[in-house]
Structures are given as C-alpha cells and as structure tokens.
Amino acid sequence: MDKNVIISVKGTQSTDDQVNTIMEFVTEGKYYKRDKAYFITYDESEVTGMSGTTTTLMVMDGIVTLVRAGTINSQFVFQQGQKHISYYDTEFGSFIIGVTANEVDVKIDDNGGEIRIGYQLEIDNTETGENDFWMSIREVGH
Q1: 132/10 Cα distance (integer angstroms)
Q2: How far apart are CA 13 and CA 27, in angstroms?
Q3: In a 10 Å sphere around its CB, with 0-12 CB exposed, 13-18 middle and 19+ buried, how is residue 49 labelled?
Q4: In this predicted model, what pLDDT tens digit does every residue of 70-102 receive, in sequence order?
Q5: CA-based Rg of the chain, rounded to a whole angstrom?
Q6: What is the rounded distance in angstroms from the CA atom of residue 68 to the CA atom of residue 121?
Q7: How far, rounded to the nearest angstrom, does the alpha carbon of residue 48 sit from its chain's CA centroid?
Q8: Straight-line distance from the first to the last Cα atom of the chain, in angstroms, rounded to the nearest whole number
Q9: Which of 51-60, 98-107, 114-123, 126-135 shows the lowest mean pLDDT across its residues?
Q10: What is the pLDDT of residues 6-59, one digit of tens each?
C-alpha cells in the first residue's frame, strides 16, 4: 500500500490568558504501511513557517510519532497519559521539549482516516498551554 493523499491539518494552541492560535492547511502527501505501522509524509510550506522541512507521522498501536527533518529537526511522541522529552532543533537554536498527550484518538485504516491529539507542551520546563491537533488523510480523487 502506497498512496498519494490529500492531508488536511488543523492545529489550535490555547494559552493561559485564553489566546487561541489556529493554523489550518491542506497539502498533498504520501500514505503507506510498513509492517504494522502507518506512515503519513508531507512537505511543510511557508504556511507553517517550516519551509524546507519534511514531516512524517508514524502511527502504531495508538502511539503517534511525529518526525521533522530539514530546516527544523524534531521528534515528538504522542502516547496518551505519558510524557516524552525530545529536542527541537531550529536554525535559531535548540530547545528541550516535553510533550504530554491527554488524548490520542486514531481512526485510520488502509483507506486513510483521522488522527486527533490533545497535548501540552513544555519548552525548557515551562508550560506553553493546551494544544489540539487534527489530521484527515484521504486518497487523491476520493
């Protein structure tokens, strides 16, 4: 299974002072399965501020791992109820990021589907607020 897909992404960030930042975009990408894991890959653009970066999500056993490579290099692991620590490397410097997933809702199969993740980020041990990530994957032409 290796498909060209349309990927819709919506991300929301809410801070303690109730400021909501919403980012939405639609892009083309690849969707494939290796062993028991699904992979979604797409190129970032100016819309996300990460032009020159490729994002890959690996989904297996309810755990979503997001890997970025290029102008930004990072790996986030979203596992419900667990905190994972990783590095976030940019051209401006590196940060230590803590990711705690409150909700990981994966509804995908060989035809595509949806992923929804609610999580909190900590940058250098400082909480940055609540985040919500939603992705829809559908085959081109469907």
Answers
A1: 8
A2: 21
A3: exposed
A4: 988 999 999 999 999 988 888 888 888 899 999
A5: 15
A6: 16
A7: 12
A8: 16
A9: 126-135
A10: 999 999 988 776 767 888 999 999 999 999 999 999 998 877 778 889 999 999
Q: Which domain holds residue 112?
A: 2-139
Q: Nearest CA to 27 among 58, 6, 54?
A: 6
Kindly report the CATH number assigned to the domain that includes residue 82. Answer: 2.40.128.20
Instruction: Give, as one character, the DSSP assignment of residue 48.
Output: G
Q: Is the dihedral of CA 20, 21, 27, 31 positive or negative?
A: negative
Instruction: Give the residue among 51, 62, 60 at the shortest CA–CA distance from 32.
Output: 60
- Tokens for 137, please give them: 């994957």
For residue 17, give both structure tokens. 């002072």
Beta strands in 35-125 (DSSP E): 37-43, 53-60, 63-70, 73-78, 83-90, 93-109, 112-123
Residue 21 neighbours by CB under 8 Å, 6+ apart: 12, 13
In the numeric block, which tokens belong to residue 1? 């299974």
Number of domains in the chain: 1
